[in-house]
Amino acid sequence: MTDSSPSAVQLTEGGAVLMNGNRLRDEIVAELAIEIERLGSPAVCLATVLVGDDKPSRLYVKSKHKKAQQAGMLSRHVELGADATQAEVETVVGELADDPSVHGILVQLPLPDGLDPEPVLDLVPPEKDVDGLTERSMGRLVRGKPGLVPCTPLGVMRLLERYGIETAGKTAVVIGRSTLVGLPQVLLLGRKGVDATVTLAHSRTADLVETCRNADIIVAAAGIAKLIGAEHVKPGATVIDVGVSRTGDGIQGDVDFDAVQAIAGAITPMPGGTGPMTIACLLQNTLTAARLQGLVED
Ligand code: NAD
Question: Ligand 1: does its nearest atom lie under 6 Å from the Cβ of 223?
Answer without folding.
Answer: yes
